[in-house]
Amino acid sequence: MLFRRRQPETFRQKLRGALWPRRSWRRSARYMQHRILRLRATPHAIAAGIAAGVFSTFTPFIGFHFIIAFAVAWLIRGSLAGAALGCLLGNPVTFPIIWASTYELGRYVLASETPDGQAPTAIGPALLHGDFAAVWTPYVKPMLVGSLPLGLAFAALTYVVVLFMARSFQESRHRRSAASRAIAAARADALTRPLP
């Protein structure tokens, strides 16, 4: 392969790279910012796609976040690539915070009692036999109810921030390209002008 490492990474190195950036958090955040702003779409499409990804990350349906993000982005005419990038909000660092906050908010909204802190008995066999109700009422239902207001709030905030950033980035890029076109036209005019 063209860019293969001379010495393949060990499992420990791969795990560390997945949980902690190789260079720094600041550099990784800058890289993601550039990836988002350079998407080829309108500022609304970029912001709507990112917001759809952020919203889907708050839902408790792990494994379906990309599908939910793509569906929501398609409905609101957002960028599908932006939706995929927005799903990156959900990672091993943020998922415990998201799950705890959605669960607590959902439990508050539903005014439900706290379970005894133990997982439902025989959760594996219940899910294998399709008895989703054993997990639905105590855990999934509060998380789903709590995910809606939190997901919508964070998606709206993300939409506004990304829309502003995408507009300003595209306007400055348009100004730079217009200036370079004007310089190129002036040079071409100077070359075609006859010598005195």
Describe the model.
By secondary structure, this protein is an all-alpha fold. The chain has eight helices and no strands. It has helices spanning 11-19, 25-37, 43-57, 65-75, 80-86, 95-110, 123-128, 133-192. The chain is elongated, with a radius of gyration of 24 Å. It starts with 10 loop residues before the first helix and ends with a helix.
Residue stretches low in confidence (pLDDT < 50, at least 5 long) are none
- Based on CA atoms alone, the radius of gyration comes out at 24 Å
The chain-level structural class is: mainly alpha
Oligomer: single chain
In round numbers, the mean pLDDT is: 80
- The outline comes out as elongated
Instruction: Report the sheet with the most strands, covering strand number, pairing sense and barrel closure.
Output: none
Counting DSSP H or I runs of 4 or more residues, the number of helices is 8
Range of strand content? under 5%
How would you spell out the order of helices and strands? HHHHHHHH
Task: Report helical residue fraction.
Answer: 55-70%
Query: How many extended strands?
Result: 0
Question: What is the CA–CA distance across the termini?
Answer: 59 Å
